[in-house]
Amino acid sequence: MSFCVGLLPYLELDFAGLKRLQHQNSAKSVALVLESWPDYKVLRCPDWSRETAPASRHSTEYVGPAGIGSDAPGRRIGEPGIGIWGHDREATFADVKDGTSQTALLVETTRDTGPWYQGGPATIRGLRTDETPYTGAGCQFAGTHFTEKWLFFGGKPYGMNVALADGSARFMKHSVDPAILEALFTIAGGESVSNDW
Question: Which domain holds residue 58?
């Protein structure tokens, strides 16, 4: 399913019901989620309600960095270029060799978002180095948080929120050095990231 499911007990939300559906992949299961379960607003950025059209009740703009490359979610602990999240791996604090303040836990995006209970590429993804720029409207990440609208000009997206593994959150502008985003996407890349991004 999605890493969001594992967060639900800590948010006092319906974990047991989702766990029962975890191994089901049917239209009936999806309909149950969409029709009868609450709107998990905590999984969406509150600022979006004023900046974009209403999203599905069960959408999320937050995705988990899986590392560098489109195949990163499938790699195992100890392999190069992996991030905190993966399909069949669980990273511990000991695995985060770069330090929790230099490792991304969640990033925002407007691209390919969807219902978080579907998992896969909707909520966990690697940073594709063959597709640049990484951030901005229509790019892999961001496209979120707009400048103010003026009479003759619409607002333009200029950055995104990034949650770090130490529990802090920072705002990242689209103009960030691509090497910084690459470093934040890995848990043991050995890069040193300055705090002025």
Answer: 43-184
Q: What is the pLDDT of residues 58-106, one digit of tens each?
A: 678 889 999 999 999 999 999 999 999 998 899 999 999 999 999 999 9
Q: Which two tokens stand for residue 16?
A: 């047991």
Q: Is the dihedral of CA 186, 190, 194, 195 positive or negative?
A: positive
* Residue 10 domain flag: no
Number of structural domains the chain divides into: 1
CA atoms of 171 and 163, how far apart (whole Å) = 9
pLDDT tens digit string along 3-35? 777 777 777 766 666 666 655 556 566 666 656
Whether residue 52 lies inside any domain: the answer is: yes
pTM score > 0.85 for this model?
A: no
Per the domain annotation, does 92 fall within a domain?
yes
